[in-house]
């Protein structure tokens, strides 16, 4: 099987790591990076679609999403300094609008949509943390959107914690430089919280190929699916 993948967030740490693994993985045939600016990477598998707004694609931009088996949605913003309405617009509205355009461009096709949510996301409406509540609402809507025949779902919600970057990455948050050194210790002491970006990327690819039954993936699930599918 070969996969054609759409990827967002390639100019961020998570998206860049997932992109590098996709380009290196023989199962992946094509990757379309969609974002507001070029990702700065060239590769024979890679095409780019630069847009003004992920939440408001033009008809031509939406049409360019056709023919892809899976979307790995790695775009996201921090909730720091934002009120819930603003954060919801940049998280829930943006993600759902893009997902709707992706579905519209591929009618009748059993699509896979992998969404990078986060460790601690709360899928209940009563969640105490604003960011976790908004992310949880986004997860719930995506699971509904990508369900097939009312039973199974092609939506996979990824809840990683600390992630070790992939070798060769350039976009690494300053916070993570120290974690790269201490990662083996973190992985041993806190296995439920730490994984690698390679784990995340490989788990996404395996979700697109094998469609595992579990759709909300904590760190331990990500690591397991990355290794075994």
Structure description:
With 229 residues, the chain is α/β, with parallel strands linked by helices. It has a single domain, classed as NAD(P)-binding Rossmann-like Domain (Rossmann fold, 3-Layer(aba) Sandwich), CATH 3.40.50.720. It contains 7 helices and 11 strands. The strands form 3 sheets. It has a 7-stranded parallel β-sheet with strand order 3-2-1-4-5-8-11, sandwiched between helices. A two-stranded antiparallel ribbon has the order 6-7. Strands 9-10 form a two-stranded parallel ribbon. Strand 4, helix 3 and strand 5 form a beta-alpha-beta unit. The two termini are 14 Å apart.
Task: List its traits.
229 residues, alpha/beta, Rossmann fold, 7-stranded parallel beta sheet, two-stranded antiparallel ribbon, 11 strands, 19% strand
Summarize the structure.
This protein is an alpha/beta fold. 41% of the residues lie in helices and 19% in strands. A seven-stranded parallel beta sheet has the order 3-2-1-4-5-8-11, with helices on both faces. It has a two-stranded antiparallel ribbon with strand order 6-7. It has a two-stranded parallel sheet with strand order 9-10.
Write the layout of secondary structure elements.
Elements (H helix, E strand, L loop, with lengths): L2 E6 L4 H12 L3 E8 L10 E5 L8 H5 L6 E4 L10 H22 L6 E5 L13 H16 L1 E2 L3 E2 L1 E4 L3 E3 L9 H16 L4 E3 H14 L5 E2 L1 H10 L1
Parallel strand pairs: 1-2, 1-4, 2-3, 4-5, 5-8, 8-11, 9-10
Antiparallel strand pairs: 6-7
Helix pairs in contact: 1-6, 3-4, 6-7
């Amino acid at each position: 099987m070969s996969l054609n993948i759409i990827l967002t967030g390639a100019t961020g740490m998570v998206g860049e790591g997932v992109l590098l693994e996709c380009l290196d993985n023989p199962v992946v045939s094509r990757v379309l990076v969609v974002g507001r600016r070029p990702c700065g990477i060239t590769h024979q598998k890679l095409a780019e679609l630069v847009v003004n707004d992920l939440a408001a694609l033009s008809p031509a931009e939406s049409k360019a999403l056709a023919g892809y088996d899976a979307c790995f949605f790695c775009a996201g913003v921090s909730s720091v300094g934002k009120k819930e309405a603003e954060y919801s617009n940049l998280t829930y509205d943006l993600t759902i609008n893009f997902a709707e355009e992706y579905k519209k461009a591929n009618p009748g096709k059993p699509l896979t949509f992998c969404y990078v949510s986060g460790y601690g996301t709360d899928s209940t409406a009563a969640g105490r943390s604003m960011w976790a509540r908004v992310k949880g609402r986004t997860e719930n809507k995506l699971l509904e959107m990508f369900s097939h025949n009312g039973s199974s779902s092609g939506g996979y919600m990824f809840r990683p914690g600390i992630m070790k970057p992939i070798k060769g990455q350039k976009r690494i948050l300053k916070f993570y430089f120290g974690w790269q050194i201490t990662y083996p210790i973190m992985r041993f002491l806190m296995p439920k919280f730490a994984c690698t970006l390679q784990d995340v990327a490989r788990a996404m690819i395996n979700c697109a190929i094998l469609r595992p039954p579990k759709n909300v993936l904590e760190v331990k699930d990500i690591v397991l699916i990355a290794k075994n599918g």
